[in-house]
Amino acid sequence: MKLPDSARFSTICIHAGQEPDPSTGAIITPIYQTSTYVQEELGKHKGYEYARTQNPTRFALEQNLAAIEGGTAAYAFASGMAAIDAITTLLKAGDHVVVTDNTYGGTFRLFDKVLTKYGLEFSYVDTSSPELIEEAIRPDTRMLFIETPTNPVLRLTDLARVAGISKAHDIRLVVDNTFASPCLQRPIEFGADLVMHSTTKYLNGHSDSVGGIVIAARQEDADWLKFIQNAAGAILSPFDSWLVLRGTKTLAVRMAQHNLNGQALAEYLEEHPRVTRVIYPGLPSHPQHELAKRQMKGFGGMLSFELGSFEEAKRVCNRVRLMSLAESLGGVETLMTHPASMTHASVPPERRAAIGLSDALVRISAGIEDVQDLVDDLSQALG
Ligand SMILES: Cc1ncc(COP(=O)(O)O)c(C=O)c1O
């Protein structure tokens, strides 16, 4: 099988990095569940010595995701957080990072509680405003760490504008692309240097694996990430690599349905009398709907809505039947989350208030079920 240079997105998802197994011809890359490889004689081996450093299943996934995001190389880690941690090893003590203020709670915790101990400094700004980014940049700023759309208030950052700023100041641009998935947005095309995902979410898509990936545009970053993946050792296991590879094959068809269900649920909620606000990039009421249309190929399966009070939000979360009350997102099944007490509990209340994350906010990760069943469930839960 030879993937043509002209191959389009869904074809790349299915075939990139996927060669039939050399020993049997198996069309699916096997799970190479081994810790080491036998060498023919001293100094003579097949390019595989030890499984932290080299594993064919992981390599297949890394090549697949490098192609899907349009990068030079990709490296798979044991979780999304391990992937972010690896990226920050490109920095050194004294370096400053500008971060989207509404970043994932775990990212904030890693930066605020761990990496500040090692002399890194972080400024949290609303990166939907390029002026605020420019203001936050200092002579020692070495990285811009962006999430778009953000979790859970779905604010967008203009990737082309931010890439221009990062180039002008010679700062690395990192994009956490977990929420959109590469099917909806490919940040390297806009000028990002590094893209990361929690593969736990849309890339795997089936809620049965935790993992992370970093895709590098520049060779020098790829070389360092390869080194740190082996040196620190937070690698993705062969089985998880295989699961994510299976997931990426259906990414395009899953995302098409996530888009449809996300839009339909957002439109339903916007008409509901108990709902005070719906946040979804696909609604004309979203303040950055025009940017979403320009920058994204679909609006995705993530939406948030606000009710009158925390009590009402709690009631709805407890009453859903088909939807599951759970952390995480991006799986085929619809999940409901109360960010203030679940995913973003590690973010201090005053910071949550500043980014518009109230206790009355509920987040939905729309799955790919029949949308009428989801609407019926919301309808009974909202009463
Ligand atoms: C946007 C985003 N980035 C990173 C992470 C961390 O990924 P993981 O849970 O795989 O470590 C998450 C997890 O929810 C996330 O939502």
Task: Write out key terms for the chains shown.
5-stranded mixed sheet, 12 strands, alpha/beta, 14 helices, binds pyridoxal-5'-phosphate, 383 residues, single chain
Q: What report would you give on this structure?
A:
The chain has 14 helices and 12 strands. By secondary structure, the chain is α/β, with parallel strands linked by helices. The radius of gyration is 21 Å and the shape is globular. Pyridoxal-5'-phosphate binds next to helix 3 and helix 4.
Largest sheet: 7 strands, mixed
Number of helices: 14
Order of helices and strands: HHEHEHEHEHEHEEHHHEHEHEEHEH
Strand portion: 5-15%
Adjacency order of strands in the biggest sheet: 1-7-6-5-4-2-3
Q: What is the average per-residue confidence, as pLDDT, rounded to a whole number?
A: 97
By DSSP, the count of extended strands is 12
Structural class: alpha/beta
Hetero groups: pyridoxal-5'-phosphate
Report how far apart the termini are: 54 Å
Estimated helix fraction: 25-40%
Query: How big is the Rg?
Result: 21 Å
